[in-house]
Amino acid sequence: MTLTKSMVLASAVALSPAVLAGGTHGHGHGSSIGEPGVASEASRTITVELYDNYYEPEQIEVSAGETVRFVLENKGNLVHEFNIGTPSMHEAHQEEMMMMVEHGVIQGGKLNHHMMEMDMGNGHSMKHDDPNSVLIEPGKSGEIVWTFSNESNIEFACNVPGHYQAGMYGDVTFK
Amino acid sequence: MRKRLLTGLFSLFVPALVFAGEYNLTVDRVTIDTGDFIKEGIGYNGKSPGPVLRFKEGENVKINVTNNLDEMTSIHWHGLILPFQQDGVPGISFPGIKAGETFTYEFSVVQAGTYWFHSHSGFQEPDGAFGSIIIEPKGREPFRYDREYVIQLTDKHPHTGDRIMRNLKMMPDYYNREQQTVGEFFSDAKTNGLMNTLKDRMAWGDMRMMKADVEDVQGFTGMINGKGPEQNWTGLFEPGERIRLRFINSSAMTYFDVRIPGLNMTVVQADGNNVQPVNVDEFRIGVAETYDVIVRPRDAQAYTIFAESMGRSGYARATLAPKEGMEAAVPTMRKPARLTMADMGGMHGMDHGDMDHGSMNHGAMDEMDHSGMSGMDHGSMAAMDHSTHGSMGADKEKPDDPFYAKGSGIMPEAANGGKFLSYADLKAQKPLYEEREPTREIELRLTGNMERYTWSINGVKYADADPIRLQYGERVRFKFVNETMMTHPMHLHGMWSILDVGAGQWNPVKHTVSVQPGTTVFMETEVDAPGQWAFHCHLSYHAAAGMFRKVVVEGAPQASQVSAELVTNEGGGA
């Protein structure tokens, strides 16, 4: 969710502690949640199915430092997100997602791609292009390759308004 | 065609998968203690509210109801889809259950969610004859929770239902304690000028209504699960748990505005049907409606469930707490709501005298037509989004709820300034029916004369009315035009009410649809249930006064009727 290309670059420095470091809000590790990985270095592929409004599986186990390729299949009737982050990161992202719904970017079962590209003024657009997250329409698939760090307070979650609260998140546990 | 296929499939699988449960209910005289007063009432299995009945989707249930009263009784399974003979409305579904007799209901449970049951005889329901139903779905639910509670609301009145009806007939403002006072007249005169205040009062007098008619039966104690505010029903939780609260409004007459200070609520079900989750701070629950919400208290503290009546004449209160005996602050009620001229928007055809020249009345009507339903009707969701929200980053101005007349005195607002649930937020989680054009439209004007306490549909009360005849297989669009100053929760038995919120195929499916004063609301019904059904305002005294119709579904293929009965009988034998 952001921001035009230039804004992404400009804000990358400012955002990176918030986006990639899970530890900013108190639980003290100060470590990052990890970083985008390269598919060729992935130790394995985990397929997560997205339903209305839950994941299957709801728990995945990884090792610190492991690179995992996630294949994400939306088997539901609604747009869903797969986002890797800490609970507080998800909470912050939910406000942005609310805006996407209010502006018609996410319409139940549809993503309004045209709206996502639209200039919202002040250099903002409503692209959803953070590397730790992907939005997927019903029937479609997405992919994230992620290298986990040793930050262990991590959930994968759907931050479409109401979905997280309804229980659409899963735990990442560390071996 | 599809119907036959389904029926065929059903009969193939039913014998293999049948789960049959037998339940026993007794209808008893009971004592009800609200904390404010103790009264005689009616309950089930010795208590009011009666038990929580837990069914499973696909189960064939057999419910033995024994009438221990010295009068006729009945039980209606509110919101359940079943053969009409099992629907429990005396004179429409069956003759009723005589004193001392046992009647056995038998039907297949074809749905899941939160529902309730109540007597459909006389005023037994306001006297306490209700309980709740939880139906576990076959598959997994589209949300998760660690524990659940039924939160069954009611408006317990010290008088019996019969006595309330007699008093209302004699003096319609008998229970209206919020009447405007001489003092209020002078303070209004000071603010608005003497002539304006006089005109305002005279206009209201002409309409045989008072601004304070938000609630026509006041003087009740709000109760949750049989406990008054002082008795404080308490549900326990462990911090961090997700709790599903199944709110059911079993009130005779009262709408409640529900909030839990300190907790966000995520609405996941309305009238037993899953909706796309909506995060809210507060919601209004109409009489007979249900809403399921999920809350997640993270702190080891108590939280108050506070439900104040729409007219602010009473409240119900309960507590969620980590330990029994803990409690949180109980908010004070907000100022009583006053109806405005906008709420009279639908009252055309009345002699308003001077008001005919006033801009308010007509303005309200016109604006309603545009900003309300007709705009939504044709507008897409995207169009609505653009019209109601500013540009990105701009301060959000709270859009008016399109289901209320513009400028309505009862327009809901969240106590904390946050999000108040609107019908416009309700979108089906998974559409139950394919979307299609309605085959015809039926206009139902909700009408009444407050002076004589008559309530009616299209100006005709039940006793004088012909049934509404529907053809099996059609999709009817009902147009409710509320020409009264009160909110009417319209409940169609036996078939779903697809509420038009402008979301097309995602329109939510309900069993009870509130129609606010001065508004027009549309709902569509797939006529898929043969037989005869009740269709009425669920305010007990409005239904009894005549805002009620019988609906007859004609032309069902013989096969579907027979097989429906067969399934029921098989269930009984299993």
Automatic annotation (TrEMBL), chain A:
PANTHER family: AURACYANIN-B, COPPER-RESISTANT CUPROPROTEIN COPI. It comes from the Bacteria. This is Plastocyanin. It comes from Marinobacter litoralis. One of its GO terms (molecular function) is metal ion binding. Residues 1-21 form the signal peptide. Keywords: Copper, Metal-binding, Signal. Residues 40-86 form the EfeO-type cupredoxin-like domain. The keyword Metal-binding applies.
From TrEMBL, chain B:
Keywords: Copper, Metal-binding, Oxidoreductase, Signal. PROSITE patterns: MULTICOPPER_OXIDASE1 (PS00079), MULTICOPPER_OXIDASE2 (PS00080). Residues 38-138, 220-318, 436-554 form the Plastocyanin-like domain. GO terms for cellular component: periplasmic space. Residues 1-20 form the signal peptide. InterPro entries: Cu-oxidase-like_N, Cu-oxidase_2nd, Cu-oxidase_C, Cu-oxidase_fam, Cu-R_CopA, Cu_oxidase_CS, Cu_oxidase_Cu_BS, Cupredoxin. GO terms for molecular function: copper ion binding; oxidoreductase activity. Residues 373-396 are annotated as: Disordered. CDD domains: CuRO_2_CopA, CuRO_3_CopA. The keyword Oxidoreductase applies. Gene3D superfamilies: Cupredoxins - blue copper proteins. Pfam families: Cu-oxidase, Cu-oxidase_2, Cu-oxidase_3. The keyword Signal applies. This is Copper resistance protein A.
